[in-house]
Design brief:
alpha+beta, 34% helix
Amino acid sequence: MKALAAAIGLVCLSPLLLAATAAVAAAGSAGRSTTCTTGPGTDAAAVAKAVEAILGTNGATSQDVRVEGLELPAEQIPHAKTIVATGISLHVPERGQVVALATAIQESRLRNLDYGDRDSLGLFQQRPSQGWGTPEQIRDPVYASTKFYNALLKVPGWESLTITQAAQKVQLSGYPGAYAQWEPLARALQQAIVKVLPGAGSGGTPTPGTQPPAAGGCTGGGGFGPIPEGTVPEGYEIPKEVPAKVQTAIRWSMGQLGTMYQWGGTCLASHGPDPMGRCDCSSLTQQSYNAAGITLTRTTYTQVNEGSSVPVSGIKPGDLLFTRPGPNGPEHVAMAIGSAKGTALAIEAPRTGRPVRIVTQASLGDIIAVRRMVPAP
């Protein structure tokens, strides 16, 4: 891990040099170069513009974007977004997200590497031999970010340490001062990315779900026992008596079963390699109804005002079920999908570390609002 980190972090890399990174790391001695010992000057406005260009809707490519310190922005900025979104989902404060970004910039230049010093891999150059996980797990950006944050949060008083001291407590690098150079860029990235995440324009970012998992990773299933996560309970069928658009929305949502939750994920490619293509609770409902030709807004705070209000006693398949009251409104949403063996069911993207799953409506806790998107026939 550390020889690669030095090779990448202590030499100011140009796009031409990036292609030779693996060779530099293998050479070992090149990691001690002192050609450039500080990171690039950071233009926060340029970073914000690059983030908006890559993560926004104007379809920019790496050829369209130029910002010092981000030689491959189309690859690097989405990884930075995953790191920030994962931090938010774990309730890691802004400073912790900056620590994680600075670490990943130093260790991998925000690239999900399949090589490194000894057996180091991924964004943070974590080593399977050191207990960070399997190679496959480490190369999952959400898993890698989660492992980093979990380690950081265990450091006593990490909040009062400098960015580089906090990073070093986790990474134990042979070049402990190397992280400091990336603090300005990491901070600019964090501040720009949170502005494009869901909820940024609605008075605040929705708090990620914190509902604890049921015992054994399953949810109680009434007449059919526990429901293994990501599976369809025995006897369930999409109700045929509901409107066709509701059937389409339910069918589409069930196509995401078993895919891992990602706070801030778009739910546009939940089976793909990009974590930000996975679903969170409100993007699952949004895209399910989008498949049925019905447009919903992006967050629970706004979805709770869409469609028509329905009493909890009158829930039908397709209704959106809102739970977990917060200061800005409900912070979780699931969709009723009908029942099996007399037990009312819902589908949800629950929280970080859990997949899209079918649960009993009773297991959702107190339902504080119900909204119907398609009038009942």
